[in-house]
Write a structure and sequence with these properties.
Helix content: 40-55%
Number of helices: 19
Radius of gyration: 25 Å
CATH class of the largest domain: Alpha Beta
Number of strands: 15
Length: 412
């Protein structure tokens, strides 16, 4: 394989399967192509589990190809059953539209929108899916699918094997996704669909549909699903999902997420989630033997891609101030308390539970008993402690849970 785009996909670990890698490589050598990835709009932000797909779109641009970002306003009304144990919550169209507007912000941060040839095209499949005539759709599209084959796809088979209900609505999802590819092939000359490996069956459906109706070749390509060495699911922590939108997950918390990467995953993630040149990465791995320095590099580069250089530098400085010097990092999450309440006194358990530092007062009691909570680096040894004005220095104190969670409590 000589094509630089597909070769770098392979070298970075992005490439899992392709319907015809040889032919696709030949086409990419001859001309710039358009390829699309679809994203659900079930929330107002994507989470870090979608980041690998966005990095692939970014890589496309690097090699002169145009990415198409399909935001599934239509398919989100149905819900993708892939990897799900139960039917998704059904959202209203207004909520989905708001989600799409919010999600777009991340793509505009990470992808290059200034180059006319490679600037991303944003499409919403509600444009065509919500206008379908059901009988006509069954005749023109549904006739190309067999129940026998549809039952073999993992998204269906696994649900049925576990005897978990799969609605007829969800069962149709794969046909709608195939129709999306068909539409983009016709409207945008999009010859390639990319997705996670759990989307392989749905993608192949699209290439088959294009071949049957239009008598033309389209291609499908998947990336591997990310598995962590720890066995945990990518992007899930005790705080919940690692959201990509800044208003739902701060740049500092995002930086910390990458800084806390398992030692065994650091090198892999530097290939996946940074755009550091491959040769430069190999040189870094030869010279740098301190895994913590590699973690800081990963945190800096990943945060820079999403939130910019200033936010990345600020997060690193805050971490240094907080962890290395025992100071008060300026970018730490902040909790505000009313001066009048402080003068009366605030119970430590109330402060912790009311601000979701821990889920409950009972967990806060256990943390205190295990010497896991500190004020300005001094262990709290009494769960009946009352926070008073004298505990603050210049109207600020640092509340810490364990080694990695720190908050600035400020009097207003």
């Amino acid at each position: 394989m000589n094509n630089k785009f597909l070769q770098e996909m392979k070298d970075r670990g992005y490439l899992n399967q392709c319907t015809d890698l040889g032919k696709l490589s030949e086409i990419c050598d001859k001309k710039s192509i358009s390829a699309y990835i679809g994203f659900d709009c079930t929330a107002s932000s994507l989470h870090v589990g979608s980041l690998l797909q966005i990095m692939i779109l970014k890589l496309m641009q690097k090699h002169g190809h145009r990415p198409i970002v399909l935001l599934g306003g239509g398919t989100t009304l149905i819900g993708d059953p892939s990897g799900k144990d139960a039917t998704r919550k059904i959202l209203e169209q207004k909520e989905i539209k708001n989600n799409i507007k919010s999600i777009k912000k991340v793509f505009k941060k990470i992808l290059n929108t200034s180059n006319k040839k490679t600037s991303p095209i944003f499409v919403d499949n509600a444009q065509w899916l919500t206008k379908l005539n059901y009988i006509q759709f069954l005749r023109d599209i549904g006739s190309h699918f067999t129940i026998n084959k549809m039952l073999t796809f993992d998204s269906v088979k696994l649900r049925l094997e576990r005897e978990q209900s799969l609605s007829y609505m969800e069962f149709n999802y794969m046909i709608l996704q195939a129709f999306d590819f068909y539409q983009l092939f016709k409207k945008q000359n999009c010859i390639l669909q990319i997705g996670g490996s759990d989307q392989w069956g749905n993608i192949v459906n699209g290439t088959d549909l294009i071949r049957r109706i239009l008598k033309k070749e389209a291609y499908g390509l998947t990336s591997p699903l990310i598995t962590l060495s720890s066995g945990a699911k990518m992007g899930k922590t005790e705080k919940g999902a690692i959201w990509l939108n800044e208003d739902q997950f701060t740049p500092y918390d995002y930086w910390q997420f990458w800084r806390n990467t398992d030692d065994r995953d650091v090198k892999k993630f530097l290939f996946f989630f940074t755009d550091i040149d491959l040769k430069e990465l190999e040189n870094i791995f030869k010279k740098e033997k301190n895994i913590n320095n590699l973690k800081v590099l990963l945190a800096n580069e990943a945060t820079k891609l999403l939130h910019g250089s200033n936010a990345s530098q600020k997060a690193e400085q805050t971490a240094k101030d907080t962890f290395e010097r025992g100071g008060l990092g300026s970018d730490l999450p902040e909790i505000y308390v009313d001066l009048d309440k402080v003068k009366i006194g605030i119970k430590i358990l109330d402060l912790i539970a009311d601000n979701n530092i821990l889920p409950s007062k009972s967990e806060a009691r256990r943390a205190i008993a295990n010497k896991g909570l500190k004020i300005d680096d001094l262990i709290i040894d009494n769960d009946k402690k009352i926070i008073q004005e004298k505990d603050f220095k210049n109207k600020i104190l640092k509340l810490s849970y364990g080694k990695k969670k720190h908050f600035l409590v400020k009097i207003t």
